[in-house]
């Protein structure tokens, strides 16, 4: 296959897909500059207001459709768009422009939208860049209505109504991901994004094979081109010939065969051939992952992300809403532990309901536990909901991005206060819950012995630990090759965390994406981690690999990895250790 017909990106959601490409462009209609006479000004303002109403009605209809197809929580993403479309400051500034400069409604709207777009696009904040997709969606609708051009995103692809397609976009937002018809869209390609961007994690959760960071894909893949997408290898083969088609069929059938083997692993114990026992938990980001995690044999939830309760919504979740969600999850996992992570807001998880300040370096900014401790009105209802559900369920609380002991102590103080209040009000609730810490910063690794004294458990957030250790942005496609959780510097930190946990007698697990990747799961096993929290679709594969590779082989590779000087050496060690056991199957 020639290089022109092969594009290499980052495999972010495993699986093979073979289908014609559909390009989704968020092209905006052309808006010619148009001035109006003084007598027409008020009519233009009225036209603007009517277009806003129509846009809001269309978004609400879309929200209903998504609610039916994907669920209530996913549909809430559109609340942010509705809020943006009705933003009073923005609309006032557009009306002002119509009146002052006598511009048509579309010209004034376009002018102001471009102003904001430039501001957000030039910001280094991924939170604002994520909001660009919302702004774009509203621009398309508003300008469509005001100019009389169809208010839809441009999907160009096979005209024969292909039943299954692979969607190509410049940037795949979580908003677009949840809107996709999963029977129709069998693969996703985006020019931007990496394995740890939230749209990637969502695609993985939904089980749609996806490749991100495929730069130039839109220019190079003409709509209708047959694409063979490998979401594991991160490769895109364009218009494969008969031999390559056959190869695609073989891949697909091999994948189905492997799936059968993996299916079998679900009911088997998570135990290595030499008798090492593992605990495999599930990461649950969205309610719809509860069932896949159970189906794939999760022994509990090792990371219940709670951000979806906030992101893309117009109001902060109430204690009751959170309590209802926690009950739903703990009832589904009755008798099994559920680790609830406190809000991990900021970074690339923007809360529409929360007016967070603009920051030049959001990942080094006001995020995670910092936000919760600074905003007790956000944190306290969550703590109360956790205490209430813990009264008769196996629930633990986990704090993200901890960098010092005081953050844990302050959380425990707030927790004790809320427990007292609940007791005084006669509300049924636990007196306390075990509080654990995510090891996500080099600071937490360095202070692991101190943190272990105040923590019930550790869980390594390897996505963030890798980004902060290597100073490599986890969301930057250009740096994707350098984002290596198996980098020796990270490996050494992981070993220190295992040791600190063992010294203090607390459990230590990993819930970052490296636990969901076969080779790095072997590395973690070899380093001494026995509990991994894994993306639900990857649970059977990780279990199959851990059941296949003897612990002794994993340990030998991990020990050697501590002395490696480059990530590729670590990969080679892991491959050498695992391949003989995996290829024999
Ligand atoms: C991590 O950083 O590894 C982690 C699990 O947290 P998140 O991906 O939600 O930041
Ligand atoms: Mg993290």
Largest sheet: 9 strands, mixed
Could you say which overall geometry the principal axes of the C-alpha atoms support? globular
- Which whole number gives the mean pLDDT? 88
Structural class: alpha/beta
Number of strands: 17
Bound molecules: phosphoenolpyruvate, magnesium ion
3D architecture notes:
It contains 23 helices and 17 strands. The chain has 585 residues and is of the alpha/beta class. Strands 1, 2, 3, 4, 5, 6, 7, 8 and 9 form a nine-stranded mixed sheet that branches. Strands 10-11-12-13-14-15-16-17 form an eight-stranded parallel barrel, surrounded by four helices. Helix 12 (319-332) links the parallel strand 11 (301-304) and strand 12. Helix 4 crosses helix 5 (105-121), helix 14 packs across helix 15 (405-424) and helix 20 (518-527) packs across helix 21. The model has no long low-confidence stretch (mean pLDDT 88). It binds phosphoenolpyruvate and magnesium ion (MG). Residues 400, 440, 461, 463-464 line the site of magnesium ion.
How is the topology of this model organized?
Blueprint: E1 6-8, E2 10-13, E3 16-25, H1 41-70, H2 72-75, H3 77-85, H4 88-101, H5 105-121, H6 126-147, E4 154-156, E5 165-169, H7 174-179, E6 185-190, H8 198-206, E7 210-212, H9 217-220, E8 226-230, E9 235-238, H10 242-266, E10 279-284, H11 290-295, E11 301-304, H12 319-332, E12 338-341, H13 369-374, H14 376-389, E13 395-399, H15 405-424, E14 435-439, H16 442-446, H17 448-454, E15 457-460, H18 462-470, H19 488-504, E16 507-510, H20 518-527, E17 531-534, H21 539-548, H22 551-561, H23 567-583
The structure holds phosphoenolpyruvate and magnesium ion.
């Amino acid at each position: 296959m020639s290089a022109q017909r092969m594009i290499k990106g980052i495999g972010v959601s495993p699986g093979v897909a073979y289908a014609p490409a559909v390009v989704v462009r968020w092209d905006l209609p052309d808006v010619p500059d148009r001035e109006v006479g003084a007598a027409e000004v008020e009519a233009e303002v009225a036209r603007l207001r009517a277009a806003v109403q129509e846009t809001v009605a269309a978004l609400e209809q879309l929200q209903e459709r998504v609610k039916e197809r994907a669920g209530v929580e996913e549909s809430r993403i559109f609340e942010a768009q509705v809020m943006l479309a009705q933003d009073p400051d923005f609309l006032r500034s557009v009306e002002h422009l119509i009146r002052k400069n006598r511009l048509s409604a579309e010209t004034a709207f376009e002018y102001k939208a471009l102003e904001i777009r430039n501001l957000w696009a030039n910001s280094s904040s991924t939170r604002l860049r994520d909001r660009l997709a919302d702004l774009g969606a509203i621009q398309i609708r508003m300008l469509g209505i005001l100019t009389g051009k169809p208010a839809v995103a441009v999907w160009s692809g096979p005209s024969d109504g292909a039943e299954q397609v692979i969607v190509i976009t410049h940037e795949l937002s979580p908003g677009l991901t949840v809107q996709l018809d999963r029977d129709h869209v069998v693969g996703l390609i985006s020019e931007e994004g990496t394995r740890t961007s939230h749209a990637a994690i969502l695609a993985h959760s939904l089980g749609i094979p996806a490749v991100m960071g495929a730069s130039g894909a839109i220019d190079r893949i003409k709509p209708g081109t047959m694409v063979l997408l490998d979401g594991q290898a991160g490769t895109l083969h364009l218009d494969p010939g008969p031999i390559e088609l056959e190869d695609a069929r073989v891949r697909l059938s091999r994948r189905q065969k492997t799936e059968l083997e993996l299916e079998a692993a679900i009911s088997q114990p998570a135990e290595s051939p030499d008798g090492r026992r593992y605990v495999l938990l599930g990461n649950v980001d969205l309610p719809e992952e509860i069932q896949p995690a159970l189906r794939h044999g999760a022994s509990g939830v090792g990371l219940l992300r709670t951000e979806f309760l906030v992101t893309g919504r117009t109001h902060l979740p109430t204690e009751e809403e959170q309590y209802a969600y926690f009950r739903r999850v703990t009832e589904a996992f009755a008798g099994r532990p559920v680790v609830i992570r406190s809000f991990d807001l900021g970074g690339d998880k923007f809360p529409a309901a929360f007016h967070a300040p603009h920051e030049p370096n959001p990942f080094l900014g006001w995020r995670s536990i910092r936000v919760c401790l600074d905003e007790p009105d956000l944190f306290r209802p969550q703590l109360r909901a956790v205490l209430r559900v813990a009264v008769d369920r196996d629930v633990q609380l986990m704090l993200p991005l901890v960098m010092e002991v005081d953050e844990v102590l302050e959380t425990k103080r707030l927790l004790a206060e809320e427990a007292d209040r609940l007791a005084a009000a006669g509300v049924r609730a636990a007196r306390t819950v075990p509080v654990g810490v995510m090891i996500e910063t080099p600071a937490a690794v360095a202070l692991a012995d101190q943190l272990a004294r105040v923590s019930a458990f550790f869980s390594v957030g390897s996505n963030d630990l890798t980004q902060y250790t290597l100073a490599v942005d986890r969301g930057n496609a250009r740096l994707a090759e350098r984002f290596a959780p198996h980098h020796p510097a990270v490996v050494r930190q992981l070993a220190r965390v295992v040791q600190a946990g063992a010294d203090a007698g607390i459990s230590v697990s990993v819930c970052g994406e490296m636990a969901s990747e076969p080779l790095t799961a072997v590395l973690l096993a070899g380093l001494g981690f026995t509990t991994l929290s894994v993306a639900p679709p990857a649970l059977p594969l990780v279990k199959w690999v851990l059941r296949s590779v003897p612990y002794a082989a994993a340990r030998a590779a991990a020990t050697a990895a501590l002395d490696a000087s480059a990530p590729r050496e670590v990969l080679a060690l892991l491959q050498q250790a695992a391949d003989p056991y995996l290829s024999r199957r």
